[in-house]
Amino acid sequence: MTRPPFAVDFKSIPRLSFNLSTRKQEEEDDERGDVATGKPGQTFLSHVTARRLAAVKRAGEVLTVLPGEGESLHCILLGYFDLLNVVLALLDRAGSPCSVLRIATLSFSKRNVAELAGLLDAGAVKTLDLLTSHFQKEHDGEILAVALEELSAKRGQRVAAARSHCKLICIALEDGRRYTIEGSANLRTSRNQEQFALSRDAALWGFYDAWLASMVKDHEIGRRDDPPTS
How far apart are CA 8 and CA 116, in angstroms? Predict the structure, then answer.
């Protein structure tokens, strides 16, 4: 059977494997903001560990072919990987700034916050909405407090928390392209196998983006809210 020209040969994609250390070391690496030098022009990758930079490079390998309008790319991530790696690789490969980035996740890390702040500072992302779960608000108050300080207080972006289990990313590029990422993965690192679908479909993006914007508006964490608990 002849393969369509846009199809991806998943057998050719190398297995995502990393040199894992202890769990404690993994968590420290994920949260730490060590300085590393990226490729020229990739300013939003300026504060990553060497291991994390390798992860972003691997994410780029699964995005060898970006979907065209009306198409979707389906992928299974194997091993130590996180969804924000995919977002960084997508923005780099797309070659266009992101006018609006909206994210819904069950949880995120301090490292995620630093990278999102870097995207904003570099102008790679103009506007950011971040929706996390009520669970993270109640159990990861320290991490949420960092997000509120770095993303909301310092950079004027919206951070919200609700009883949501959705993992969803809506990306509006300045050149008019609209991408949606939906799947099982949270924004932060997971050692589990995860799946996601990357779709370029304006109608699908509009459906999810409207819902996510509404959720952030209704559940934004403001100054009058009770502080997150540790």
Answer: 29
196 three-class SS: strand
Cβ contacts of residue 142 below 8 Å, gap of 6+? 228, 230
What percentage of residues in the chain have a pLDDT greater than 90? 50
Domains located in the chain, CATH noted: 23-219 (3.30.870.10)
Cα-atom radius of gyration of the chain, to the nearest Å?
Answer: 17
The span from the first CA to the last CA of the chain, in angstroms, equals 56
Q: How far is residue 82's CA from residue 103's CA, in Å, rounded to a whole number?
A: 14
> Whole-structure pTM over 0.90, yes or no?
no
What's residue 13's pLDDT?
A: 43
Count of other CB atoms within 10 angstroms of residue 111: 24
